[in-house]
Task: structure prediction
Amino acid sequence: MKIRKRFKVLGVIVLILIIGRLTLPYFVARYVNKVLSEIPGYYGKIDDVDIHLLSGSYQINGLELKKVENNTKFPFLDIPQINLSVEWPALVQGKIVAEIFFIKPVVNFEKNEEPKIKKDKKQVDWTEPLKRLVPVKINKLRIREGNVAFRDFESNPKINLVMTNIELQATNLSNANKSTDPLPSHLELRAGTTTMGSGKLSLSADLNVLKPIPDFDADLKYEEVDLTAFNDMFLAYGNVDVEKGRLFIYSEAALIDSSFEGYVKPIIKELNFLDLKEKPVNPGKIIREATLNLIAGIFKNRKAEQFAAKAPFEGKISDVNMNVWSSVWSVWRNAFVKAFDMNTDNSISIADDALKQNMKQ
Result:
């Protein structure tokens, strides 16, 4: 009798687990849709949720978030699949943290005409409700095959710039490793875009996202960009276009204790604005492009065959100042003194100084 009773109890437990497993996705999906519906100025939904109890994970399928203006919905965020799971290596060290994995996310930024109705000046942080979807702190973030687009359908011509194939990994975001490094987290981003001039983007950064205003020390490279891919933007905002040119951008930036320092160094090779065979003939456009060609030719480094500048900036996060005269002088220096190296300069010291000061304490 005791054995039979134990089997009955076991059967009831198994039945409860089966019922819970079958009904839990429904209730989780309802909760997620409720969270998305509460974002002011946005409309959001998901298709469904898959629960994996044994692995301590769940999967959100078909997440959509649209920006709503004047009863019109603009696509903003589209993520076919999100995987959220417990990070087991951190659990072994006694930390309950999560890993989140976005598969093929698409983010759209659109420049639209200002609505005729008065807009609420209060800024909405659409990320705050999404954080409620993860019951524990996120320690690892991954993105596979992401796309980011900027569109302006009110301009002439219309602008549609898309960065594709974004791969991102950020680790130790909640410092589950208990690192004593002031910048304990690390981020790596790669994008081999096929639409924005076929350029290659890479970003490497050390971070501390546990502070109210996160610290970081980052290096960025965006190389071999075909400038003709941006001609719609050049025509819409400057009424000029590029006949030929390759762009290289190198940048370093650091933010430590709200103090900011960095630079942006664009280098352009084979630059040419003017196309005398272009039809129909636009005299004003020809004059503008000929002037730009003349300026670029005067300040081009003949040996390196490049036009370049280096724009430094520094200050507090609430008041970042661009050094205009240093930027102007950099164009002259590249042309007539020494050509800039096609790489980052390792010249930002604010992060190193802060780390040394931290070690002394």
Q: What stands out?
A: Helices lie at 2-37, 88-92, 127-131, 231-238, 283-298, 324-336, 350-360. The longest helix spans residues 2-37. The CA atoms of residues 303 and 339 lie 8 Å apart.
